[in-house]
Amino acid sequence: MNQLLSTVILPAEVRAALESAPDVFVPATRRNLLDRATGAGAPPTFDVVYDVQGRGPVKEADVVRCKNGIVVNYPEDYLRRRDPDCMRIADDLPTDKPRYRDTFGAEFAPVRQETLDWLASQELLVVPFRAGGLTYGTPSLAIVPANAAFFATALVDLQGFVDLAGSEPFAPRSIIYVAPPFRHTHFDGRQVVVHDRSETLHEIFSYNLYPGPSAKKGVFSVLLDIGEQEGWVTAHASAVRVTTPYENETVIMHEGASGGGKSEMLEELHREDDGRILLGVNVVSDEPYYMSLSEVSTLSPVTDDMTLCHPSIQNDSGRLVVTDAEDGWFLRTDSMTSYGSDPNLESVTVHPDEPLVFFNMQGVPGATCLIWEHTLDSDGTPCPNPRVVVPRRMIKKIVLDAAEEVDVRSFGVRMPPATRDDPSYGIMGMLQVIPPSLAWLWRLIAPRGHKNPSIIETQASVEATKHRMVAEGVGSYWPFSTGTKVAAANLLLRQIVDAPRTRYVLVPNQHIGAYKVGFTAEWLTREYLARRGGATFRPDHLTPARCPLFGYALTEMKIDGQLVRPTFLQPENQSQVGEEAYDTGAKILTDFFKSELPQFLTDDLDPLGRAIIETCLADGSVEQYVALTPIV
């Protein structure tokens, strides 16, 4: 076994497996992994193949070496995206997620040993990293078959590479084991990721090679597990520092279910060819509504998806303090359809400082991989989940190695069109100011909303979501949590209450009443909040929203001297909506909240949380929510 592992503290059975393996390679640099990704000394294409008992050789992926990196593709459409139902819990610690024994009718321990025995027969890569980033992360390890070096490269790009040479004893808090053949021999071809937790070690057994469920969201699970034990949260959020033309700085942290606008919060505001900004188009009359801004604010990204709220970085400012939980970003490029779609990202990926790892894109040996040339699925359509891993240091204008105080926490929801003839819950105004209690309720449920790009939908389900919603769960990170909903709810409530000077708003995307707005409303709201800076809202600028779950609506919004049309702020006043259709949508929304909230009313729920939920169930007013958690 590689001598570098002498400093690593491992369970006895794991060390035994490594000692039995024919070869164990511990990389000293990222380049070591990259050079192995297409096979040492081999042509620039490499098939990742495993012998599967009873089936012979099975290809799990192929890798192509291009000018700007390596391109990974999978032979099945199913393997090109994360299966949302792949998590199983093998231990007996508290959880609300499906347990392994309940799904498969047997204990996991024998399969765990089989996995270690299989790894003991393979040439292996053992990759040290820090889950949660190099500064605040915890020591972790990945044990990967040597022919899956692309997986290990993507992992260290996402989490941060650790060189064991000359280091102090390395005690992993989490270990990822990768064993692709078990997908066929034990799990009928499905992606399965098994979490086996103890008080000191979180093991992740990944039975597939798409990094989403393990190297990305699996590590998120580890951070949530550690946070639940220690009393802190890793938020599912992006964060950006916005600097206005007058050099005022505001930090906005944006949350929401998938499709809620987290990545878009980091995007520059889009303009028409003539420089105008298209805020929205009326879906009934096709009337466009434009605005003009001579200058816009400068964006400095802070986090993209996993936002660390570690206790060691909190201070006495009364604001939540955050930093990035990742060393690289797993960026989806499905919106890139041609040259010029995103010049900044194109520049980074076409001419990177060092080779990148691309997924589900067309790769030609020796050529440049282009992020708008997506792999075609079996039906001939472009794969909806093309990805590239970009190390943080390559992101333009990014805030490096700094913790930021959050001025505003926004929450985004995908809204369907709402009209008098076809009412729906798409009635949120362009900016709703809410007290902390309502901010907690929205994060408790995290509605996925209309036409979610991460969910496979039929036309019938798209139509149905005009009139019903689906909850993504606590903090929108619930799909990745291995714990219990109530424990997560309590932590999130305490985090909100402990940061009284951070303000909370709701921001819709896709539609505002009868107007299709895409993400432009979010971008203009970002501009408005940044230009206000720390200014408070005067009482005459706010009015209780007609639906109490929306808190307060603005009576006026002025950006760069231009007033936003008031009907974008209070959609019930749109001629194609009206109060009756608005109230129908408000009932859809309120009934949905009432159907989701009772599950949290257990003896373990924080008393303040119980009072907030009971206020909602009793159709409380916004003033009652403010009485529970004042707006500072």
How is the secondary structure organized here?
Blueprint: H1 12-20, E1 23-25, H2 30-36, E2 45-52, E3 56-66, E4 69-73, E5 87-89, H3 100-104, H4 109-120, E6 123-131, E7 138-145, H5 149-159, E8 174-178, H6 182-185, E9 193-197, E10 202-206, H7 212-230, E11 234-243, E12 249-255, E13 277-282, E14 288-291, E15 298-303, E16 306-308, E17 321-324, E18 328-332, H8 343-350, E19 356-359, E20 387-391, E21 404-405, E22 408-414, E23 432-434, H9 436-445, H10 459-464, H11 485-497, E24 503-512, E25 515-518, H12 520-532, E26 542-544, E27 552-554, E28 558-559, E29 562-563, H13 578-596, H14 607-617, H15 622-628
Parallel strand pairs: 1-6, 4-19, 5-9, 7-8, 8-10, 12-22, 22-24
Antiparallel strand pairs: 2-3, 3-4, 6-7, 9-10, 11-12, 11-15, 11-16, 13-14, 13-25, 16-17, 17-21, 18-20, 19-20, 23-24, 23-27, 24-25, 26-27, 28-29
